[in-house]
Amino acid sequence: TALQALAMLNNHFLIRQSERLAGRVQRESATVPGQVKRLFELVYHRVPESTEHKAVISLAREHGLANACRVVLNSNEFLFLN
User: Fold this and answer.
1) Do 65 and 35 meet the contact criterion of CB atoms below 8 Å apart?
2) Secondary element (H or E) of residue 63
């Protein structure tokens, strides 16, 4: 439900894990496009599609990599399909 998604997105544990994941991705790749590609590999076990890659790069540049990680970790694909 929408309330569950909001609760998950604002959960302190998820925020901390997003920050830790962002740190790992930054250590493993020097560029934002490389970091986003690595993020998808770690979370979804696949490379991002072109449109996904561009959207998450834009999100990471505008709001920071940790927030991009939060969005990915709160996605339907991660929560229910992986």
Assistant:
1) yes
2) helix 50-63
